[in-house]
Design brief:
The protein has about 450 residues and is an all-alpha fold. It has two domains: about 5-345, Orthogonal Bundle (Hydantoin permease), CATH 1.10.4160; about 365-440, no CATH class. It has 19 helices and no strands. It is a multi-pass membrane protein.
C-alpha cells in the first residue's frame, strides 16, 4: 500500500480515534471553571486555553511523527540522562501523581457526590474509589478490547450530551457572565494558557503519539513525509473536536454563576449545569456516562504506565507494576479533586514549559540541523525558570522563591521561561558554531 491508498476515511477514522483518546472526563472539568472565573473575558481566556489544550497536543503528535520515534527518542536530542528523567516525570504526572487519581476523583464528583451531598463525604469517597480502582486494576490486566469498545460508545454519548447542554444553554440562557476574577482581570489570555496545562493533553500526546503513528503505519504509510503529512491532518481533526467541546463548556461555565454559584472545581459546575438544563434524568445520564469514561481513562493510563515500567525495567512483572500504581492512585484520589488539582499545579508548571520547548524544537529541527547544543540550551533555559516557578507554587518554598520569579520579564503573564529558552537556544547554537570553526 502507498500513500494514495491511505484514504480520507482512514484519516478521519484515526483522527476520531485520537479525539476519543484525548477526550477523557478530566478534560470536561476545566473549561467550565475557566468560564466562571474569566467571566466577561471568557473568550480571550479560552483562546489561551486552546493554545495549550488543543494546539500543543497537535504539535506534539507532529513532533512524534517527525522524530520517527517516541518520547524517549525526542528526549535523546537533549541527552541520555534527560532521556531517562524527563519521560519518567511525564509518566508519573499522567500516571499515579495526577492523571490516574483524577479519574477517580472526577468520577466521584460527578457520579456520586450530587446524590449524597456533604454527609459522610470522606467515607463515601473512600468506598467509591476503592471499588473504582479495584475494577480499574482488574480491567487493566487485559485492557485492549474493553477500552476500545467503551471508547466507541461513550465518546459519542458524551459529545451528544454536551451538544444538547450547549444548545439548551444558548436557547435558554442561565444568566450573563460576571466580572473576571482569580487572575483573569489583567492577563486573561495567559491565565487561560496556564489553565490548559491541566488537560495534560500535550504531555499525554508525547506518550500516546506513538499509538497514532503505529495505527497509520499499519494502514500502509511507509514514507516519513507521508506520515508527517497524515499526522498533521489527524491532529487537526482531533483538535477541531476538542476545540468545539472546550468552547461549549467555557460558554456554559461563564453563564452558570447565577444558577450554581462560584465553585472550586468544574465537576460541581458541570453537574449543576446538567441538572438545571436537563433535569434529574439528565443528571443521572451524565453521572453514568462520565463515570464509565473515567474508568476507561483510568484503565488506559494504568496500562500505559505498566507497559512503560516493563519497557524500562523488564524484571518487574506487569501485574505487580499496575498493582502498585493502582494502589498509589487510590490513595492519592482520596485527597479530593480540589486538593488534587492544587497538588498537581507545581509539577505541571515545571513540566509544561520544557515539553513545549521540546516539541517546538523537534518540529523546527531542520532549521538548525538538529544541533543537540541548541536543544540542550533551549531546554535548559526553560527548565531554569520553570522548575523554580513550579516550586514557588508550594506552601513550603513559595515565600522564598516567588520574590525571585516575580521581577522576571513576562512573569506576570506566567511565561517567564520563554526568553531564557530563546537565549539558551541561541547560546547553544553560538557555542556549536565556535566549536565547528575551531575544528576547521
Amino acid at each position: 500500500m502507498n500513500e494514495r491508498d491511505f484514504s480520507t476515511r482512514d484519516t478521519i477514522t484515526i483522527g476520531l480515534m485520537m479525539f476519543a483518546l484525548f477526550l477523557g472526563a478530566g478534560n470536561l472539568i476545566f473549561p467550565p471553571a475557566l468560564g466562571q472565573a474569566a467571566g466577561t473575558s471568557v473568550w480571550i481566556a479560552t483562546i489561551g486555553f486552546l493554545v495549550t489544550g488543543v494546539g500543543l497536543p497537535i504539535l506534539a503528535i507532529i513532533a512524534i511523527a517527525k522524530s520517527g520515534g517516541d518520547l524517549q527518542k525526542i528526549s535523546q536530542k537533549v541527552g541520555p540522562t534527560f532521556a531517562i528523567f524527563f519521560p519518567l516525570a511525564v509518566y508519573l504526572a499522567i500516571g499515579p501523581l495526577f492523571g490516574i487519581p483524577r479519574t477517580g476523583s472526577v468520577a466521584f464528583e460527578i457520579g456520586l457526590f450530587p446524590y449524597i451531598g456533604e454527609r459522610s463525604l470522606t467515607l463515601f469517597l473512600f468506598l467509591f474509589t476503592l471499588i473504582f480502582f479495584g475494577l480499574s486494576f482488574w480491567l487493566s490486566l487485559n485492557p485492549s478490547k474493553l477500552v476500545g469498545r467503551i471508547g466507541k460508545i461513550i465518546t459519542p454519548i458524551i459529545v451528544a450530551i454536551l451538544g444538547l447542554l450547549t444548545i439548551m444553554g444558548i436557547s435558554q440562557p442561565m444568566g450573563g457572565p460576571n466580572a473576571p476574577i482569580e487572575g483573569y482581570e489583567q492577563f486573561a489570555f495567559f491565565q487561560g494558557f496556564q489553565e490548559g496545562y491541566f488537560t495534560m493533553d500535550a504531555i499525554g500526546a508525547l506518550v500516546f503519539g506513538i499509538v497514532i503513528i503505529t495505527r497509520m503505519k499499519e494502514r500502509g504509510l511507509t514514507t516519513h513525509a507521508a506520515t508527517v503529512k497524515r499526522a498533521t491532518q489527524v491532529g487537526i481533526i482531533a483538535g477541531t473536536g476538542l476545540m468545539l467541546v472546550y468552547l461549549s463548556l467555557a460558554f456554559l461555565g461563564a453563564t452558570s454563576v447565577s444558577i450554581v454559584g462560584y465553585q472550586n472545581n468544574g465537576g460541581v459546575i458541570l453537574t449543576g449545569i446538567s441538572e438545571h438544563l436537563l433535569g434529574f434524568l439528565g443528571l443521572i445520564l451524565l453521572s453514568i456516562v462520565i463515570t464509565m469514561a473515567c474508568l476507561t481513562t483510568s484503565v488506559g493510563l494504568i496500562s500505559a504506565f505498566g507497559e512503560y515500567v516493563q519497557k524500562t525495567i523488564p524484571k518487574i512483572p506487569y501485574p505487580l507494576s499496575i498493582g502498585v500504581v493502582t494502589l498509589f492512585s487510590f490513595l492519592m484520589s482520596n485527597l479530593g479533586l480540589t486538593q488534587l488539582l492544587q497538588f498537581s499545579l507545581p509539577m505541571l508548571i515545571m513540566l509544561y514549559p520544557v515539553a513545549i520547548v521540546l516539541v517546538i524544537m523537534t518540529i523546527f529541527k531542520d532549521l538548525f540541523h538538529e544541533n543537540s547544543l541548541v536543544f540542550k540550551g533551549a531546554v535548559l533555559g526553560a527548565a531554569l525558570i520553570s522548575i523554580p516557578d513550579g516550586l514557588s507554587q508550594t506552601a513550603l518554598l513559595g515565600n522564598y522563591i516567588e520574590p525571585l520569579i516575580t521581577p522576571l520579564p513576562l512573569a506576570g503573564m506566567g511565561v517567564a521561561w520563554i526568553i531564557p529558552a530563546i537565549i539558551g537556544g541561541v547560546i547553544g547554537g553560538f557555542i556549536s558554531n565556535r566549536w565547528r570553526m575551531a575544528e576547521n
